[in-house]
Amino acid sequence: MPFAFADPDQPSRPVHIVAQSDAEAFLAARSPAERAWLTAAGFAGKLGQFCLLPGPDGSPAAAILGWGSPVARQRGRFHAAKVVADLPDGNWHLEGPLDRNELEEAALGWLLATYRFDRYKSAKAPSARLKAPDGIDTARILAIAEGEALTRDLINTPAADMGPGELENAFLALAERFGAQTRVVRGDDLLAEGFPMIHTVGRASSRAPRLLDLRWGSEGPTLTLVGKGVCFDTGGLDIKPASSMGLMKKDMGGAATVMGLARMIMALGLKLRLRVLVPAVENAVGGNAFRPQDILTSRKGLTVEVNNTDAEGRLVLADALALADEEKPDLIISMATLTGAARVAVGPDLAPFYCDDNAVAAALAAGGSAVADPLWRMPFWEPYETMIEPGIADLDNAPSGGMAGSITAALFLRRFVTETPRYVHFDIYGWQPKSEPARPKGGVGQGARAILAALPDVLPL
C-alpha cells in the first residue's frame, strides 16, 4: 500500500509530546483556558495519555500525548503511533524532546499505523497525516514502511489465494519492480536440478513446489537471503490438530519477511549484490506424501531421517541453503517460522536469532535496539549436535524428547552452510496476536528492520 508524509509546505497542527516529568511545567506554560481544560481531563503526562486542545472556534487546534517515563517507554514501542487513529483529518507535526532515533521511530510508527489489509473487506485508514520531522531520512522511512507492508500483505492473505504459484507471482512482481533477475524451478524439474527435499515436501499438493531465485545488484559485497515459503502446513501425514493448523497460512512468514527486506534494500539502492531464495511449497496429505521414517538425500548429499513430517520447513530450507552456500557469499541469512519452541522461549514479540560471529551478532542486536525491532540471540549449542544424529542417517529432522527444539532446528540448518563463514538464522513468529500501536493483529515482519540497520556494520557497503 502507498505511504506518504504530509506536504511540508502546507500548515499543520502540533502534537505535543510531554514526558511525565515535564507535565507540570508544560501545564504552567499553557494559557489559563488550556490549563483548565487539561487539568479537568486529568492530564499528567502518563504514557499514552491523549487529549485534544480546542482552538478559539472550538475545532481541534493541537493534541497532547503523554510520554511517560523512560522505564514506562521501555515496556513497548511505537508509542507516538497511538494517537494516529484518534486525530482528526489534516496535517500534524510532532513537538517535544525527541532525539533522532525517537523521531524516526515515531515517523515510521505513524505510517505503519495507517496500514490496513483491505483485500477482502474495505477498511478506512486514518486520515491524519504527519509532516516529516526535520533531520530524518524520509526516503528510508518510506522504503521500510513499504517493505513491511509487503510482508504483512503476503502473510495476511489466506492460503487459498497465496499458494506456491501466487507467492511466485508476488516474487516476480517484486523483481520486475526493481529490475532484478529471476529464475524459477518448478515441479519435477526440482529433482533434475538437485533439490530433492523441496520436491519431496511439496509433491503431495495439487500446487507444484518450486524454488524462487532472485538476483539484484552488480557491485559490492554479496548477501543471500533464504526464506521458508511453506504456504500452508497441514503437518503432512503427521497431521496437525485443528488448534495448531489455524494459523498455518503464516508458515510462509520467512519468505514474506525476506521479500520485504529485499524490497527495502532494492528501494534504497544499497551497494551490494543481493540474492533471495524461497523454497515455495504446500505440505499436504496425499497418496504420494512423504512418510515418517523415510530417509531423504539432500542437495548437500547429507541423508535425513524423517521422524516427523510436520518438521518440513527445515527440509526445504536445507536444499535452498545448500544452493546459497555453493557461491560462498559474504553473508547468508535464513528466516523461517520454524519452531513452536521459539515461541515458548521468547514469546511473540522477540525474534530469536542464531549466529557464530560475535561481531555480526552484536551489530544485529544494536540494530534491533536502534529501530525498535527487538531480537534475542540464541546459541548454536555444540553439545546438542548429537541430538540431531539418529544413527541410521546423517541427520534427524525431529529429535525425540521435546527439548531445545529451536536450537536443534538451527543446528540442523547450519549443517548445510559449510563454505560460508558468516551465517545467521532467524526463527521468527511473523504474527501479531493482538493489536498494538503500529502493529495491528495479523501478519507482521520481524528482524528485517534490524538487519537493514546492521548491514553497514556487517558488510562493507
TrEMBL record:
Pfam families: Peptidase_M17, Peptidase_M17_N_1. Gene3D superfamilies: Leucine Aminopeptidase, subunit E, domain 1, Zn peptidases. Residues 308-315 form the Cytosol aminopeptidase domain. GO terms for molecular function: aminopeptidase activity. Keywords: Aminopeptidase, Hydrolase, Manganese, Protease. PANTHER family: LEUCINE AMINOPEPTIDASE-RELATED, PEPTIDASE B. Belongs to the peptidase M17 family. This is Leucyl aminopeptidase family protein. It comes from Albidovulum litorale.
